[in-house]
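Memo subject: From amino acid sequence to discrete backbone structure tokens
Keywords: amino acid chain, backbone geometry, structure tokens, three-dimensional fold.
Body of memo: The sequence and its backbone structure tokens, given next.
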Amino acid sequence: MTMVPNANARHFLLKAKQRDLIAAAGGIERAAEVCSYSKSAVGRWANADSHELMPLDAIFPLEEETGRCDMSEAIAAARGRRFADVEAVPANGSVMAAHAEAVVRMGELMTEGALAFADGQLTPAESARIDRALAKVGEGIDEYRKILAGAKAAGGLKVVPGGN
């Protein structure tokens, strides 16, 4: 049997993304309602120790409900592809807030890493906490990049009142 390079990494990424999607839908019970699967099935998808992945007929309604494409993006990334936004978010001065949010989330990631690495070991629970913090960093950066794209499309943006 031939091993697929990075198969475990892809699997863990998909598991992390489906946990994020379930959380964004409001948790296991709400996600079960949205996708018409049992709470036990959704619970297995959300369980980091279970190897079970969501079927497509569960992914699509959850992504539609949440307005997120976590699993679709992860599947595309596993195949070496990326999604592209078709429209830029209008530049509206929220660039400073997006910058601050990205910095705060990066600080949270650094804190989780420092706490986890302090004893020279990385437990599965610590890995999960770092992964959650990393997902938040990714979300913050994605939002920041959308706002920057909108600013670029608008020909620039004043971030300080009266600034040039």
